[in-house]
User: What shape does this take?
Amino acid sequence: MEAYWIGNALLERVGSGSFFENLKARFRPRMDGRSFDWMTSILPLGARPHHNFHVFDVYRRAGLMRDDRATVAVERMDQCRIGWGRVVTASGPELVVERRPLEMSRGRLALGKAITVRVSRHLSAAGLFDDVRPGDFVSLHWSWACQRLGPEGLARLARATRRAIEQTNLTL
Assistant: This one.
């Protein structure tokens, strides 16, 4: 799970052939051949089965990046991708974090300038991250803090995200 969400050495052990076969089994029956070929065209360039590959490339495959809906698609991709933020404040069920949103810049995906947002850290009455402090980093998914990230985890997630963005941009 850590490899899929944050990234680690296990991702490097997945070859493009086995990744292709996995995608073929899961997506090919639901897609036309052209779309499937388009989605899998970056596999030989080193794409890995990280959550952000699925977020960026399934949206791309759907054709939502090439018309007026691109803004909505990028906003959804930004929420669904595994992102990260630096905790600014922690109060009650929420954290205020500083994070870099995904955006379209000159026809390419990129991480934008840092913004401050509120995210949830509690599920009903169960407290998650009760001991998180300003300056800590947390992973984010759909406006939820998922886990505290140490320096190594933060670096792996940033690296996996940069890689996914770079590879997606090759075929936009």
The helical segments are 2-5, 9-12, 16-27, 33-40, 51-61, 70-80, 151-170. Residues 21 and 28 are 10 Å apart (CA to CA).
